[in-house]
Structure formats: C-alpha cells, structure tokens
Design goal:
Number of helices: 11
Order of helices and strands: HHEEHHHHHHHHH
Strand content: under 5%
Helix content: over 70%
CATH architecture of the largest domain: Orthogonal Bundle
CATH superfamily of the largest domain: MetI-like
Strand order of the largest sheet: 1-2
CATH class of the largest domain: Mainly Alpha
Structural class: mainly alpha
Radius of gyration: 23 Å
Number of domains: 2
CATH topology of the largest domain: MetI-like fold
Length: 283
Amino acid sequence: MKRKTLIQNIAFGIFRLMALSVVAILVWIIGFLVVKGAGALSWEFITESPTDGMTKGGIFPAIVGTLCLVVGSMVFAFPIGVMSGIYINEYAANNWVVKFIRVMTNNLSSIPSIVFGLFGMALFVNTLGFGDSILAGSLTLGLLVLPIVIRTTEEALKTIPDTYRQGSYALGASKLTTIRKVILPMAMPNITTGLILAVGRVSGETAPILFTCAAYFLPKLPTSIFDQVMALPYHLYVLATSGTDIEAARPVAYGTALVLILIVLIVNLLAGVLRGYFNKKLR
C-alpha cells in the first residue's frame, strides 16, 4: 500500500512539475516581451503611422489591418463552421460520408499555413480577381481556422445529453426549434472556446497574408475591403528579418510583438466574458 501511495505521489509530482513548467515558459516569454518592448510603447507608438523605414513612428495602420483581418475571417469562418458542426452532429446520419468529412476536416487542420496562403493567392487573388486585399486575406484566414470551429462546435454539441432533445420533442418542439432554443444556448460557452482558438491563430499568422493582402509599408488606413493592409505579424517579420535597419528597428519589433500579444489577450478576455455571459444565462 505504501509503495502504491509513493508511486502515486511521484506521478502527481511529475504532473505538477510539467504543468508549472508550461506556466513558467509562458510567464518567461511574456516577461521577456514586456522587458524588451515596454520601452517602445507610448501613445504615439499606438496611434501614429511608421516613418523612417519603419524604425520610427507608430504601428497604428498595422493594428487596424490586423483587426480587420480578424473580424473578416471570423465573419466568414464562424457562421459556416457552426452550421457545419450542427449539420454533422444533429442532422447527418453517422455513416461513412460523415466519417469521411471528419477525417478530411482533421486533415485540413494539419495543412501548413503557407499552403493556405498559396491556395488563397491562386483562388481569391488571381482566379476570383479580388487582388491583394482585405477580402482575399480574410477568406484565406477563414479557411485556415474553419476546421477548428467545426470540430469545436461538434464536440460542444456532443456534450449536451439527448434527454434535453427528447424532452423538447415531447413538448411538441420541432428539431430546428430544439436546436435553436435548447441545444445551441447550452453549447454556446464551449463553442465560444472555438472562437477564442480561432482568433488566437488568425492574429499571429504571417504566411497566409504574405501572399494575399499584407503590405510591406503602407502608412495609411484601408478604405474598402479591396485595399491592402499592414498587419502586425507581417510587420514584425519585416522588422526582424529584412528590408530595414535591424538594429534600429529592434525596439520597434519588440514593441510590435508586445502589442500583438496584448491584442490577443484582450480578445481572449472579451471572449471569456462572453462565455461567462452564456454560462450565466443557463443557470
């Protein structure tokens, strides 16, 4: 008995150590960015356009461009992903077709992002004639995160017991009414998790927008969905690699990385508030 208890304590100790290691790595990364990038943060840095080869000025156009791409991709991916998840779990029979769709969805989520970028350039930029634009970039990023939304929605719907569906049917509700009034409100907190994951991935992707919408230096705000934009991930890539004075741009690069992390954190917090709101409505 003592030997089993000792083994159990050792196992739990290893698990705690691994969990703390993950937290420590996260804190180290964020702390590194705060130390290196806090000095570059200022009101001018947030609200002005870049100047002098992007070594001075601010990153406001890149912030606006990133937000445009995030919103555009979610407008495309979230409704289609949620409706696809509802169809697979609630309407489609569990046959080989559905299994094939699940396998293809999983395979789609494992495709490298640069492949999505090339596909987006071929389809949206060239074939459909959208050009290098917010629309082409948003659609490409939407395709990138579509499998995440679909799988998260499907798993969220699976967690709802069938007794709720049967009770709704017994009261005379149709299948559509049951899904809309009973199932979706209960699954929405977990569906929101998929939205958080999708936003987090879209915010930091560089390869898809490299071929579809990102501009190297564009110190102005977009006026339509067919305009090119600067974006924080690509802006950071340019600052850290080529096309400018790397040493002079290093503080700006760290500041840009910190702003990108803060934007993702704020979006996640807002999504967490939304998740809490849906949870409260269920009580």
